[in-house]
Amino acid sequence: MLLALPDDAFAPFGPGGLSSGDTAWVLTAAALVLFMTPGLAFFYGGLSRQKSVLNMMMMSFGSIGVVSVIYVLWGYSMSFASAHTGQSDILGIFDNPFALFGLSPLLETKEVGADTLFVLGGFGTVPAIVWAGFQLTFAVITVALISGAMAERMKFATWLVFGAIWVTVVYFPLSHMVWGGGLLSGAENSIASWIFGYDAEAGVASVAPIDFAGGTVVHINAGMAALVLAVLVGRRNGFGKMAYRPHNIPFVMLGAAILWFGWFGFNVGSEGAADMVAGQVWVNTTAATAAAMLGWLVVERIRDGKPTSVGAASGIVAGLVAITPACGALSPIGSLILGSIAGALSSLAVSMKYKFGYDDSLDVVGVHLVAGLWGTIGIGLLATETGLFYGGGIKQLVVQAVIALAAVVFTGIMTAIIAFIVKPMGWRVSLENEETGIDETEHAETAYELA
Question: So where does this one cross the membrane (predicted)?
């Protein structure tokens, strides 16, 4: 498709062209989402022990470096090339990594009369290069999220290599499958179309999956990868025998605040426009997050006798995770219900690691996988147009459960394969280095000079 730009570039250009307002908002949203990864570094860093805080934060910053480079080179192409080029994807799983290699093709223009046109068009009402930048930030934070399961014991070099491989063979394909017209989308050759048929007139499956901003692509994906690594790499020395207390709870609260702030870019920016739906998403995101924080604290008060600061921060994240796929499909009341249940479920789920014996150090599984699954499946119950509780029948619920299960299986299998591929590098630092502190042994630094 061709989208024309007038001489005053990015000025509004009618219903089929580019919008300066939408472009400005998506650029702002991209900056907000990128800011989330340093926020995650503070959140995870605060939850870690004093001798491992720098390594934990470095895993997030390392993700920014590795994933950003890869996304520019072939990540966007693997995820969205067919949307611009019209070429067929590969088995509905991923696009040609070389079709938009380096993103330069997105900048190609030609003159048609008095107008300048992008040869490969835009993405909605924003230039494709802007949308590529926005999507880059999602890939970055998804990889960074996984690191919370591996606190205090993973070699930094191994983490970077794993991140590079994982984002290429897991994140980019799942991004294409859900958002780029692949198997888990509402496209003609998707699972949803095979189950309930394809509406050729509407150009979408009769019952299309809903994942507004990344319940499957980001949170189920990261949470399942974290679970696999926690099981395969093994537990920290002393897990189950000693308490691992957060070394800096103000860091945790600061990180949660930055994540909440940045999440408006995450969810609202996914609308790709500054419109009424964007306003609905903003309100739903706030409602669900606030309700989840309260839901977590209620469970904590009943179970442990005291509501905690760490519980409040974790409840915020659980609510943000749950509303991510659902924020454009629910009413504000539905968002309150979704969020309160997410907070309670995640609060209950974080203790499961002790029952099953896997060391998910900073509760990526309990928060991101559990709340991500609930948010994705909860759409089938609470969506205002197609949800079961609104008279829409069971079809949306079935589709949501299918895409959630497919994401779990795909990510679980692929992450396990990558873990064995990377194993010769060595996943873990030595027991001696773990006891000394991974900050000192991996980075020759300490967070605090206390001498």
Answer: 24-44, 56-74, 128-149, 156-174, 212-234, 246-266, 281-299, 311-331, 337-354, 366-391, 397-422
How far is Cα 122 from Cα 128, in angstroms, rounded to an integer? 4
DSSP 8-state assignment for residue 200: T
On the 0-12 / 13-18 / 19+ scale of CB atoms within 10 A, 196 is middle
Chain centre distance of CA 74: 19
Number of H helices, E strands in the chain: 18, 7
Q: Given pLDDT bands bounded at 50, 70 and 90, which one contains residue 115? A: low
Residue 8 binned pLDDT confidence (cut-offs 50, 70, 90): very low
Using an 8 Å Cβ cutoff, are 336 and 287 in contact?
Answer: yes
Residue type, 353: K
Report CA-CA distances (Å) from 407 to 67, 103, 136, 183, 209.
21, 27, 20, 11, 13
For 83, how many CA atoms within 13 A lie in the half-sphere containing its CB?
24
Q: Could you report the per-residue pLDDT of 216-270, keeping only the tens digit for each?
A: 999 999 999 999 999 999 999 988 788 789 999 999 999 999 999 999 999 999 9
Residues 255-281 pLDDT 10s = 999 999 999 999 999 999 999 999 999
End-to-end CA distance of the chain: 64
**Structural Rg of the chain based on CA atoms:** 22
**Domains by residue range for the chain, with CATH:** 18-99+106-428 (1.10.3430.10)
Contacts of 15 (CB under 8 A, 6+ apart): none
